[in-house]
Amino acid sequence: MSAQPEPEPDVVIIGGGVIGLSIGWRSAQQGLRVVIADPDPGRGATRAAAGMLTPIAEAAYAEREIFQLGRESLRRYPAFASELATASGLPTGFRQGGTLQVAYDGDDLALLTEMRLLQESFGVVVQPLTARECRAAEPMLDPSVRGGLLAESDGSVDPRLLAAALLRAAAAAGARLIRQPVTEVLCTAGRAGGVRLADDSVVQARWIVLAAGWQSATMPGLPAGLAPPVRPVKGQIMRLATTAAMAAAGLPPGLLRRTVRGLVHGSSVYLVPRDSGELVVGATQEELGADTAVTAGGMWELLRDARTLVPGITELELVDVVAGLRPGTPDNAPVIGPSELPGLVLATGHFRAGVLLAPVTADTVASFLCTGSPDPIWRAFAAARFAAAGRAVSPQPESALT
User: Fold this and answer.
1) What is the pLDDT of residues 238-261, one digit of tens each?
2) Multiple choice CATH, 7-96+155-229+330-402, 3.40.50.2000, 3.40.50.720, 3.50.50.60, 3.65.10.10
3) Helix/strand/coil (H/E/C) assignment for every residue in 235-290
């Protein structure tokens, strides 16, 4: 008896980062036939992400809508992570121990005070800490730290563990992974109706979801002017690990109890501890195109600022250095929702917040694919905003702590 051909999928998702995998899992859970196309899922920006879940600590001027989206996604994270761990049988590294923002000198403290006023204007409460209270919260901080802010509801997750769990859960829910790049979006009668793969095979579907990160802007086959204006923004991070001797001495994993985001003479750095004993230090932000080289200068800057805040990190083992490409947009906000091309849904441009925004993006996109009803939460993130404002929009200035 000849094998029956695979039924045509309902949706093809272009891109297997944390956004594409999350959408694939949620869509398959809702009974859709899902194909995810990516030659190396979870190995792009997801692999290089630190996994901070910090909408409060990352709140920036002119980014109120992103903050609201991030806060909603963080609200969903505990249930999302718990359900994913159950569905996959794998850990995600989810923690919700808060974020401590610290200032090294007086000028840094003045900037942190401005940040507190901004956060309070968004309707959230952060706890100001004196220098002594900062060191009581994190004893490994340098005595020179001048003060800080504690955002107790912030958290973190391990993006590498998260991607592995999403891959297994999506497959268990019925999603099919094709380890090939998409070389073209196929349009018929004015509608996106399929994709061409690297081996020249074609997969047709009712919906195409473009979740290809910074490469979304160069996806072949899209009508002129329709590709979202996404660019690569390089970020370098390092991973350090607590040695056996340090663990035996009773030091906390990665020397810290929670994520620490710091200002050191105006430069920003973050340190994210894992339960495994790992400490992630990042991240540079460089406009260098599609360059993923790890540089000595980038690593030196991270170590310089991290060591200033937590001198003990020089005793940690260096286990990994990596550079990734975040998908940035002109206004630093994601592009989510149906495009002007029928059949094509956009889920890209998440910039620094892809891991944070995975639950809310996955839930709302999967719901749209089932019902055809756009979620009101997308209103500020439609692709049409760029056409209205012009593609020459300049990026908004980053906050001092991003």
Assistant:
1) 999 998 888 888 888 889 999 999
2) 3.50.50.60
3) EEEEEEECCHHHHHCCCCHHHCCCEEEEEECCEEEEEEECCCCEEEEECCCECCCC
